[in-house]
Amino acid sequence: MSKTNPGNFFEDFSVGQVIEHATPRTVTEGDRALYGAIYPTRFAIPSSAQFAASVGLDPHPVEDLVAFHVAFGKTVPDVSLNAVANLGYAECRFHRPVVPGDTLRTRSEVIGLKQNSNGRTGVVYVRSTATNQRDEVALDWVRWVMVHKADPDAPAPETVVPEVADAVAAADLVVPAGLDFSAYDDVAAGSPYRLGDYAVGERIDHVDGVTISEAEHMMATRLWQNTAKVHFNTEARPDGRRLVYGGHVISLARALSFNGLANAQLVAAINAGSHVAPAFADDTVYAWSEVLETAELDAPGVGALRLRLVATKGRDESMTLRGDDGKYAPGVLLDLDLWVLVPR
Amino acid sequence: MSKTNPGNFFEDFSVGQVIEHATPRTVTEGDRALYGAIYPTRFAIPSSAQFAASVGLDPHPVEDLVAFHVAFGKTVPDVSLNAVANLGYAECRFHRPVVPGDTLRTRSEVIGLKQNSNGRTGVVYVRSTATNQRDEVALDWVRWVMVHKADPDAPAPETVVPEVADAVAAADLVVPAGLDFSAYDDVAAGSPYRLGDYAVGERIDHVDGVTISEAEHMMATRLWQNTAKVHFNTEARPDGRRLVYGGHVISLARALSFNGLANAQLVAAINAGSHVAPAFADDTVYAWSEVLETAELDAPGVGALRLRLVATKGRDESMTLRGDDGKYAPGVLLDLDLWVLVPR
Amino acid sequence: MSKTNPGNFFEDFSVGQVIEHATPRTVTEGDRALYGAIYPTRFAIPSSAQFAASVGLDPHPVEDLVAFHVAFGKTVPDVSLNAVANLGYAECRFHRPVVPGDTLRTRSEVIGLKQNSNGRTGVVYVRSTATNQRDEVALDWVRWVMVHKADPDAPAPETVVPEVADAVAAADLVVPAGLDFSAYDDVAAGSPYRLGDYAVGERIDHVDGVTISEAEHMMATRLWQNTAKVHFNTEARPDGRRLVYGGHVISLARALSFNGLANAQLVAAINAGSHVAPAFADDTVYAWSEVLETAELDAPGVGALRLRLVATKGRDESMTLRGDDGKYAPGVLLDLDLWVLVPR
């Protein structure tokens, strides 16, 4: 019998099943440096231990998205190795910052199944939870993916479609223990704009663009131990191109958003996300944001912005999400709905 | 007189000569992260400090091959700067895990010399030993390289060809102090297959492939302070191509072998190795393994597998090492014979 | 009003103005590893904590140029985002080694302004000072850049051109506290050549070349949080090429200079520097040095070499800086005047 991992097919999943994912992973200062080498991030908390300590975060957290990518990567061999497409995310909450030395594990529970009418694929819904070496929750999220069946004649499971929130409610956001923005240093952070300076409906063109290189997206994706073949192997797709991991585009957009959102220091939640179009090396990625909601939180000086963060191939100064036909505008790569923490 | 290093030529070596190589090198968490960004490694011990501690290894070791590459790189300026070819390895044993903060130095003794009949080159045999900052041996190995003569008229030295073992005997493998696999966590490690599940003669196709990029192989090779010009300089070879460092292919194959050998946690020895064909950027590397020998070792729950690890350009599902003519099959890049430690 | 950073234009600067640059940055072991992956550096002090401690430097400093790039990168968004050209450096002194855990901030004072006769641009002179988390000076330097005016009709400021030294005097070099080369290990460092072995006027061809890749120069430049668009975005220049950050060429040349200057352990000062021609991916960079001055310093066993370090595209064994017409020879990329500390 083969000792290699074939991944799970649609008929291998059952509602209520719990999967303990392999490969616990210790986060280090090396991850911080590589993240900064691959993405143009300049947010003051992950950049400076001194700044982080000045707002109550000591030891020095890494970018929230480092934790997201590491935790997400664990699920790929079991959940999405045979995926047709990553369909969506919801209810992703960051419960505590991850610091160098933390070891993350991820566990997933199957919370929904729905076979497609073609009989050859189905949608699998999982709630995944990443915990640290003290069994504290670092982050959790729901994701749903379309997965191949190995045997088209395998019987369809009972359809269970879980209810997921359109967005995490502001009241349900977790503020990191000790976070205190009351002595926040705007100059060091690089922007005078605080919660009250952002208005719902406001759009911000983040101006800068980054051209993707093959080595960079592969190094990032490998760092997260993501094993999907299409990112690494020119022989895995008929067109011979390596598909950029969707999370790479998320991190590029988040880092580019510094220019206009420099005080959006921490990601508190990802409410929803669509990878609208694939990205490839030599594409130049830009980003724009729309303010969807604002909230004051129950921590000193802390507020939250709910943003639509859009990554585009080529710059779209008009910041158009959808055309008159309701479809995504050409060039849109990513449509991400997230909560970030800002000083108020 | 020139102050740059011309390297040693064949006539510069003498049997019994000891060379203290320059550039001691401290290993850090940055090396771990870069190794993980460049190679798709997922072995649980180097990935997770918590897992490593659970099997008795604390502080957290880096990949054994990090130590190998660093230690090997030190020898290049003195031993192989004027090499025609790296001919072989033998008797490479890993004596203790290397952890962040360890500083490695390498010393080589010339143990054999044999001028070739063409009078223009010769084979140099060295035994190299890498020690840490406490003068403890981290690893040692024998290697032989074909080296140019600077002066074809220099007299041939007396021929001395050292005897080297075909393979390190299982009884001579060094188990890291404290290693204890009696509470080994198969789920975290990613595989239920232990020593007894592998049979001599069994072959495992590791399935996955990785396409090499120029930046990645150069960054890896430079990280090990390997100075061979052909890896970095398009003007160093008539064809204008940068040759991929042979050790890069070793690490790619080792990392790919996770899929089928996830419990092959540590490398205990390298018995022999041939770089059968050169690799270049845009090649897609795959790997397969053959089980050559199995052994129970004198440490709790610890066994050893002796493997032939073969890297190929393009996937060879037939796992053919040699054709009917006895020559290596087309596509074979690397033929490596190594011992790995596994739970039993 | 736009929340993105438009950078400063010539008319936005005034003599005496002090700019506190954003984004304090903590240096880590990850920076050391990435620096070693991107540049072929082998100087024993940054390579080995044990060697560094043996010459009095404990904790283990990173390369001086890591500090330079990080500190310089901070100034880009405020000083040179709208620059036409970086015209020069002077009086750059390294006051103390930077070690992992140090957080660097940079502050600049405008010390000169001179509008160009075309009325559309002007030269801005700044003195920048990088301090650590204890408010100790890590390094300081003067630089002047040609910057666009936003409004050509803005009135010209009074012309102030500061006096800058042609070179830092040997007596003004800062030797790191505790540095002691009296038990210096030539073998570990990789060269027997000490202060007295170098003669003023001597030129050294550093022999080796490195071909630049896009991913490597972008990762390096991003690591320093340098935000100049031309380095990252193929859509930022009419020719669709990404310009290599000048500091990348400085670090390449410095690392290549190991071969001939292995004992040039620390950079004490940068006296002057010209980025003579742009560099692009696929260029192969070589370096040569000329000894300009030698000095004994007031620390045990410590001397200094003042060097002209020249980077070229393609190797120039003739080591020609300028042609008969007084212009830089074809192929010269960088002409850097610096002081390095060596054992005597």
UniProtKB/TrEMBL annotation, chains A, B, C:
Pfam families the UniProt entry points to: MC_hydratase
Top-level taxon in the UniProt lineage: Bacteria
InterPro entries: HotDog_dom_sf (IPR029069), MC_hydratase (IPR048274), MCH/BMMD (IPR052342), Thiol_ester_hydratase_Rv0216 (IPR016790)
Protein name per the record: MaoC family dehydratase
